[in-house]
Amino acid sequence: MMKKLSVHIFFIFLLYIPITGFSQLHTRSGKALKLYNEARHFYEFMELDKASNQIDMAVKADPDFLEAHLLRAELNADIKKYSKAIESYRKVVSIDSSFYPNAMYNLGHIEFLSGMYTASRQHLTSFLKFKGLQPSIIKKARKDLAGCLFSIEGVKHPVPLSLQNLGPGVNTPMNEYWPSLTADEQTLVFTVLVPEGEFMIAGFSQKKFQEDFYISVRTDSVWQTRKPLGKPINSPRNEGAQSLSVDGRMMYFTACNRSDGMGSCDIYLSYRHPGGWTNPNPLSPPLNSKYWDAQPSISADGHTLYFVSNRPGGFGKMDIWISHYAGGKWQQPLNAGAAINTSGNEMSPFIHPDKKTLYFSSDGHPGFGGFDLFFTRNKGTDTTWSKPENLGYPINTHGDEIGFIVNAAGTTAYFSSDRIKENGKDIYAFDLYKEARPGFVTYMKGKVYDSETNRPLNAHFELTDLDNDTLIMEAYAGIDGSFLVCIPTDHNYALNVSKEGYLFFSDHFPLKGMHAVDHPFIKDVPMNPIRVGESTILRNIFFAFNSYKLKRESMVELEKLKTFLKQYPDLHIEISGHTDWIGTNEYNLELSKQRSRAVYLYLIKDGIEASRLTYVGYGETKPIQDNNTEEGRAANRRTEIRIVKMGK
Question: Which has the closest alpha carbon to 546: 504, 582, 576?
Fold first, then answer.
């Protein structure tokens, strides 16, 4: 969620400067001293507007009044008016740099946060030459100095960046940030800071804001006019830092100080249905805790949640944590480890649908000032990651970069920026340079329906890696039968769609060796009801060339078939083999018969009664596509099952 205005007062130097007795101060002006003392009084009571006015007049009355410049610098640093703070800190060190050595550090630190890297390096280097410095300040100065050196080199070697504003359908004079996107890039949900009147704090008039969610859909490459997400998600309180599931049917988000929460901020979940969104509910412990838990990012399979927390066991202030969904609940979160988390703050994690590439913000790793964006690759476990890499300048600047996502294809990044000051915070897209891209992910999108009645079915999906029999993803179609499932490239996959009362549907995605797919898979899935005469193609049964020996990759489909037959013990099926027209009729008939027999033998060996099974080869006699094309011939080489009897 967006950081709110905060005022941090530092009275370190004031402890050593008497209020009266101007002979001890660097001024001979009674007027300047009077104004200075008034400013100190207002500052101590947090009447910052009055303090600012009086201290400005004090330095005008005596431009060499060191203590007045010091107070003016501290005050403006607190309210983040860095240019005025730098002006006064520079005056302080020019008058007497040894009077208050920490002024030199403060100057270098603010210059670093302002992107003035060369000046910052000079002042931080000078500061570290002072004797008797506090170890904690030395550590901070060295960290900033390392950041300066990193930034000076980084600016010399910029990465490609061409920002594309998402347009008036998304962006307005309000602040828009924290984008979240469906895998098909057709739905965008984001956070908007909506003004709601004014209030006073520390003597300053401040606008009151409300964070709400808005949604926009893309039509013909244009983001349409946004709409508020509405009740029950949007409320009189703040909601933000959301993460959409790849199909847009679930949204995890952050909400704070709610009566049903466990800590200051908690993670909530809401489901999208045809009529809107369900009432959001907080996630159960141990994921939510009495600590600050926020900024979720859900994996493409819906089974892993990345989030930010300050719970015990971390490496710094805010750390990234990981929890897995198993046994119907979220498991004990694990810290993402020392490669990612630092003694500073790690924020806004985004796990790409490739399930390996994590993007996040940090002020602890070397960067250009404030929060920078980084990426890291998973090395096999929750706590083993590659060394995070800074996304580089000018993606990162001396300001705060936070809330960064990448599309499923891995080519386009989205984030919010206020680098065009007159626009405020707007959401932008840009082409992500090659080295920072994740693994490519495509998707399959469509509807599941009853093949006879066309009634939509909320069927169950499973995507399995055929190379290692690993379940990659499982999901359900919506009430309207629609689905969207992510499919990483460079592997071969079996897709299984099941629904009680129906023959299962299978598909095959041969993507091994492919690192990009030009187009997603758009197809509807008709499911045949369980009754005599209905059939389905087993698209993930594979044989060696010109052989009836089952390949290892067939085991996933064979196990699905075995489970299906055990689920419906009264079914009797025919297993049929089919070929293309290459070869003689006699050869093709025999080959198809032997292939169907191989499936038959596998099933009876694994406990399916032989009396329920028959096998037959049809050779090339029942093509389903044109044998004149390679694609058609591949489709004709298949194994099918058909229901021949129901009951004992």
Answer: 582
